[in-house]
Design goal:
mainly alpha, 14 helices, globular
């Protein structure tokens, strides 16, 4: 009954928006699973009393920051699930279903964490995750393309970016890149470092000169790759330099914001190293030279740059500052590590998502040019 009623309501809307939202919800779900199961080792049977974590008393060591971070972690899942479910359900039913599905995900993840000694199953996490999912679910109908807020967002999107579902996917990838900058474990623009999560050894010995060079190379290729990806999504009448600069500043702001959220504002400038500045300066010169090329070569160059950045970050010498656990590096311990684990997982997985996307986009552009 809900399906029949919902169909006319979305008939005039771009269907790919809902398909993309559902796809992103599944992708975000995988990120949550990846983050929740870190550090992927030490599995064991927990004490019998742990199985009653859902009915346990309210913990005494939960702080307001813990609550806020856990709420924020599930807002995107509730939002994307609800918007995706609009393919089949009416708005109210989609909100309820999206919230319940996200809540079940939280319960499942907390239950699995009982078997990991480094993680803690917590009923407050389930409650706060559920509240976050509800907030996201309630916001989702407002951003539907036919609603006031959603209509303005899509009007701005059409003015700046190329049309189509493929371009929408690229835009969301770029937004995820900005959000991934919150990861306090990685160097600036250093997404894709998998060594800590999988306990892999460093392949390069640490010296000051090697670290500076590695940082410069990672920043150079990452910035050029992201800049080329962004430029390939923009309409021809848009000033690409201004938009790229805005994205760069937004990513740097998010990195500084992570330091503030962790209660260490003095650490906001820690990532602005000589290597980072050198890589960004050289990358800017290379990027604006490559912007003169056609869209197809820019997509291919972006793919190669992000692939080289991914290789470089995993071959770089360890930076002791970023190898410390977050509770030691920033002098705090919090059950909001679930939130930071999601940011870390997003940062680690983003290059793989972007490289896959660029491969598909380049292949389609190549075939379109051949016609």
């Amino acid at each position: 009954m809900a399906t029949a009623t919902a169909a006319p309501a979305i008939a005039a809307e771009p269907r790919h928006v809902y398909v993309l939202s559902l796809t992103l919800a599944i992708a975000y779900l995988l990120i949550i699973v990846y983050a929740s199961l870190q550090p992927f080792r030490g599995w064991r049977l927990p004490p019998a009393e742990v199985y009653q974590f859902l009915t346990a008393p309210w913990p005494r060591y939960i702080t307001l920051n813990d609550v806020l971070f856990n709420v924020c972690a599930y807002v995107p899942l509730g939002f994307m699930l609800t918007l995706g479910l609009r393919l089949w359900l009416r708005p109210g039913t989609a909100v309820l279903s999206g919230t319940l599905l996200a809540l079940l995900v939280s319960i499942a993840m907390e239950s699995v964490q009982m078997f990991l000694p480094a993680r803690i199953a917590n009923n407050v996490d389930v409650l706060t995750n559920g509240v976050g999912a509800l907030i996201g679910a309630l916001a989702a109908p407002l951003f539907s393309p036919t609603q006031a807020i959603g209509a303005k967002v899509f009007k701005l999107r059409r003015r700046i970016f190329m049309p189509g579902a493929l371009a929408d996917t690229g835009i969301l990838l770029l937004l995820l890149w900005v959000i991934a900058a919150l990861n306090p474990w990685a160097q600036v623009f250093g997404a894709g470092d998998l060594r800590a999560s999988f306990d892999l050894p460093a392949l390069t010995g640490h010296t000051a000169s090697r670290l500076l060079t590695a940082e410069a190379i990672v920043v150079l290729f990452s910035f050029v790759g992201v800049g080329l990806l962004l430029s390939a999504l923009l309409r021809t009448n848009v000033r690409s330099g201004v938009v790229i600069a805005a994205f760069l500043l937004l990513a740097l702001f998010m990195r500084m914001l992570s330091a503030w959220l962790l209660g260490k504002p003095q650490g906001a400038w820690a990532g602005l190293t000589p290597g980072m500045i050198a890589g960004l300066t050289l990358g800017t010169l290379i990027l604006f030279g490559l912007l003169a090329f056609a869209r197809g070569p820019r997509l291919l160059a972006a793919l190669m740059c992000l692939l080289l950045a991914l290789i470089a970050i995993n071959l770089a010498p360890n930076n002791p500052y970023f190898n410390l656990p977050v509770q030691l590096a920033w002098g705090t311990f919090s059950h909001a590590l679930s939130f930071w684990s999601i940011m870390r997982a997003l940062s680690e997985l983003w290059p793989f998502l972007a490289i896959t996307y660029l491969g598909v986009a380049w292949w389609r552009q190549r075939n379109a040019n051949a016609v």
